[in-house]
Automatic annotation (TrEMBL):
Residues 1-59 form the HTH lysR-type domain. GO terms for molecular function: DNA binding; DNA-binding transcription factor activity. Belongs to the LysR transcriptional regulatory family. This is LysR family transcriptional regulator. Keywords: DNA-binding, Transcription, Transcription regulation.
């Protein structure tokens, strides 16, 4: 088995968790895969896998090696597919990072379409509100909401989401009247910890008003803000997609509808210094269609 085949065997073992599963994926015998890993460890001079009764797990060196080799194997498979003219069906593993709430509400329920279209494609979805380091964590493509702070990344704006003042009818029934942006100061607001000093600019035709919220509850993640709003604890300013199911059924309503707020930018980003893979581009196209559907609902 040559070096590339051995690297592929190692990647398949880590992904599947066993020699036998990797052997089935590669249409090889289990002894051949086990021998290839042993030879690879001997060539590198380090142990790559920990073998125990509970299965196989990579060592620290093995994990670092896997993160780099997996990209080489993936790129090689895509190059082979392109040469054969078979790029319509993707294969291998795609690692994506998306904000938790956007992923849970808008992406995960639709992933079956992408997986059915590409039966040999595996997808790891990192649901995380923090802005992960794409290179350090081996992410192929990510979705970012709001302004981009890292100018070195390759980015494409997917769209702009409508932003509104949102609350439950139950909270509004128990609170003071909300007729103008200035009235927001009389309300209990729910917001992000990072936005504790934020000011919001409302526009209506030629009129413009900037206000600060009386934010009593600060949270670090969108899931927490959703939970607090749905518990009638106050109002929030957020992208409509964050409460799309509740807006559709009336559990949450828009306030100050005669006024507009600056929209929220939605981006797809790739690691810098590396061309986006065919899998990453296919995922980008998939997300673009989702955003178009969201924008159509918001109109």
């Amino acid at each position: 088995m040559d070096r590339l085949q051995a690297m592929t065997a190692f990647v398949r073992v880590v992904e599947s968790g066993s020699f036998s599963a990797a052997a089935r994926l590669m249409h090889l015998g289990q002894p051949a895969v086990s021998k290839a890993i042993t030879q690879l460890e001997r060539q590198l001079g380090v142990q790559l896998l920990l073998r125990s009764a509970h299965g196989l797990t990579p060592t620290d060196a093995g994990q670092r090696y896997f993160e780099r080799v997996a990209r080489i194997v993936s790129d090689t498979e895509e190059a082979d597919a392109a040469a054969r003219g078979s790029t319509a069906s993707l294969q291998g593993r795609l690692r994506v990072a998306v904000p938790t709430t956007f992923g849970r509400l808008q992406i995960v329920p639709r992933l079956g379409l992408l997986l059915n279209q590409h039966p040999r494609l595996d997808i790891d979805v990192e649901l995380d509100d923090r802005r992960v380091d794409l290179m350090a964590e081996g992410i192929d493509v990510a979705i970012r909401v709001g302004p981009l702070n890292d100018s070195t990344m390759i980015a494409k704006r997917l769209g702009r989401g409508r932003r509104s003042v949102l609350a439950t009818p139950a909270y509004l029934a128990s609170a003071q009247a909300l007729e103008t942006p200035e009235d927001l100061g009389l309300h209990q607001a729910i917001g992000y910890i990072r936005d504790s000093a934020a000011k919001y600019t409302f526009r209506r035709q030629e009129e413009e008003i900037s206000v600060s919220l009386h934010t009593r509850l600060h949270l670090s993640a969108a899931e927490g803000i959703r939970a607090a709003v749905l518990a009638d604890l106050g109002l929030t300013i957020a992208a409509d997609w964050m409460f799309q199911p509740e807006l559709a059924c009336g559990t949450v309503v828009r306030c100050l509808t005669g006024w507009s707020l600056p929209p929220v930018d939605l981006w797809i980003v790739y690691p810098s210094g590396k061309l986006a893979s065919a899998k990453a581009r296919a995922f980008s196209d998939f997300i673009t269609r989702i955003v178009e559907q969201i924008e159509a609902v918001a109109v």
